[in-house]
Amino acid sequence: MIRPLPQRLLARNSFPVCSLRLQTRAYATRKPPSPEGLNYPLLNKLYNEYITYSEGEEPNVHKIHAFKTAISAIDGLPFQVQRIQDVEKIKGIGAGMKRRIEEALLEEEKQGIIPSTNGDVEDKKELLHAVQLFQTISGIGPMKAKKLAENGFRSLEDIMADKATFDKLSRSVQTSMKCGSRTLARIQREDITRLASLMSKVLKEFEVEVTGSYRRGAESSSDVDVLIFHPSYQVIPPQGQRPTKKAQQKVARDESPLLSLVIPQLTKAGILEEPLTSGPTKWQGLARLDPRVDRLCRIDLNLMPTLSRGAALLGYTGDAEFNRYLRAKAAKAGLRLNDFGLWKRPAGWEPSTALESKEDDQSWELVQTSTEQDVFEALDEGWIDPEKRNFGNLQRRKRKGSEHQ
């Protein structure tokens, strides 16, 4: 028998509302670079990586866009790229892509394709390897990783041994670094299944659902995304409501079932190890795949209202492009879809004269969609299995639709 949560944990709290960007993007396979081009060796390497990300079972749309932007920009240059500084100011090429370009230029330099620049090639290679290593730590992005490497650090041990540098890092980065050797970069599907089973046995009064790439059928994942539901927990933030200030945030934390019930139980059972970030409805940290084995993985725990179950499962299962597609379709129908539900304007509603007014933003009513099927039907969309909710399948569906028009 499932007991209701204590009344003090069901109080109305303040939660952040999803920020929507209702837009769609069209991706098309790019033509291979011309062998006659000035930058063919570099472009060919980037193109091969682009194809790898484009043709997998679950293409990475963000990397696809990054590679297309970089390839287009470099292809239009009237000179041969020989140094990373040659692309430093090109709009749209981010820090991560610059690192890939720098690695490619280093390889060209070693092969004699471009003239050798000042400095030792092996030193450059060592620096790039350090940048790659540091980016495996949660919370360290390309720019921070490059800065650490340029300051002479070559390993995690180097950073931890330098107290001044280590103390300046955030607590979550410090934790990730200390546990780096014990934390798996990829978690196998069977390990996630076993972990979910352990969590369900501990949280007997809660429903535990693993989402993300695992629910889409992936054989391995970089982290474990978990949704947690309880029949008594029905706190759904109204549309347009914004996070409150510190005093009310403290109340929300004190009354959070996630922080007062879920986390303590999982920690006592030896499943949760180290926290990285925590809030009233979301906890990120490290978990043991098996309490008997010293192997850790990244885990995200999200407490969601039961009435939001359908929309939450859709949103957290993904993938990102599939979510954009559904939310854009909702917007075209005059609706709004986020992780908390599908929303409609109340009967008789008329837009305010003030553009994007606060009243307009809050004038939404929740549509009863407690299951994923309910959401699909409300959007006039047929059922799509979680394993097929990806960029590649979405493109195939669009092509079939255009063929029947």
UniProtKB/TrEMBL annotation:
<comment type="similarity">
    <text>Belongs to the DNA polymerase type-X family.</text>
</comment>
<dbReference type="InterPro" id="IPR019843">
    <property type="entry name" value="DNA_pol-X_BS"/>
</dbReference>
<keyword id="KW-0479">Metal-binding</keyword>
<keyword id="KW-0238">DNA-binding</keyword>
<dbReference type="InterPro" id="IPR010996">
    <property type="entry name" value="HHH_MUS81"/>
</dbReference>
<dbReference type="GO" id="GO:0003887">
    <property type="term" value="F:DNA-directed DNA polymerase activity"/>
</dbReference>
<keyword id="KW-0460">Magnesium</keyword>
<dbReference type="InterPro" id="IPR029398">
    <property type="entry name" value="PolB_thumb"/>
</dbReference>
<dbReference type="GO" id="GO:0006303">
    <property type="term" value="P:double-strand break repair via nonhomologous end joining"/>
</dbReference>
<dbReference type="InterPro" id="IPR043519">
    <property type="entry name" value="NT_sf"/>
</dbReference>
<dbReference type="InterPro" id="IPR027421">
    <property type="entry name" value="DNA_pol_lamdba_lyase_dom_sf"/>
</dbReference>
<dbReference type="InterPro" id="IPR037160">
    <property type="entry name" value="DNA_Pol_thumb_sf"/>
</dbReference>
<keyword id="KW-0548">Nucleotidyltransferase</keyword>
<dbReference type="Pfam" id="PF14791">
    <property type="entry name" value="DNA_pol_B_thumb"/>
</dbReference>
<dbReference type="Pfam" id="PF10391">
    <property type="entry name" value="DNA_pol_lambd_f"/>
</dbReference>
<dbReference type="GO" id="GO:0003677">
    <property type="term" value="F:DNA binding"/>
</dbReference>
<dbReference type="GO" id="GO:0046872">
    <property type="term" value="F:metal ion binding"/>
</dbReference>
<feature type="domain" description="DNA-directed DNA polymerase X">
    <location>
        <begin position="46"/>
        <end position="390"/>
    </location>
</feature>
<keyword id="KW-0963">Cytoplasm</keyword>
<keyword id="KW-0539">Nucleus</keyword>
<dbReference type="InterPro" id="IPR002008">
    <property type="entry name" value="DNA_pol_X_beta-like"/>
</dbReference>
<protein>
    <recommendedName>
        <fullName>DNA polymerase</fullName>
        <ecNumber>2.7.7.7</ecNumber>
    </recommendedName>
</protein>
<dbReference type="InterPro" id="IPR022312">
    <property type="entry name" value="DNA_pol_X"/>
</dbReference>
<keyword id="KW-0227">DNA damage</keyword>
<keyword id="KW-0808">Transferase</keyword>
<dbReference type="InterPro" id="IPR028207">
    <property type="entry name" value="DNA_pol_B_palm_palm"/>
</dbReference>
<dbReference type="Pfam" id="PF14792">
    <property type="entry name" value="DNA_pol_B_palm"/>
</dbReference>
<keyword id="KW-0239">DNA-directed DNA polymerase</keyword>
<dbReference type="InterPro" id="IPR018944">
    <property type="entry name" value="DNA_pol_lambd_fingers_domain"/>
</dbReference>
<dbReference type="InterPro" id="IPR002054">
    <property type="entry name" value="DNA-dir_DNA_pol_X"/>
</dbReference>
<dbReference type="Pfam" id="PF14716">
    <property type="entry name" value="HHH_8"/>
</dbReference>
<dbReference type="GO" id="GO:0006284">
    <property type="term" value="P:base-excision repair"/>
</dbReference>
<keyword id="KW-0234">DNA repair</keyword>
<dbReference type="GO" id="GO:0005634">
    <property type="term" value="C:nucleus"/>
</dbReference>
<comment type="function">
    <text>DNA polymerase that functions in several pathways of DNA repair. Involved in base excision repair (BER) responsible for repair of lesions that give rise to abasic (AP) sites in DNA. Also contributes to DNA double-strand break repair by non-homologous end joining and homologous recombination. Has both template-dependent and template-independent (terminal transferase) DNA polymerase activities. Has also a 5'-deoxyribose-5-phosphate lyase (dRP lyase) activity.</text>
</comment>
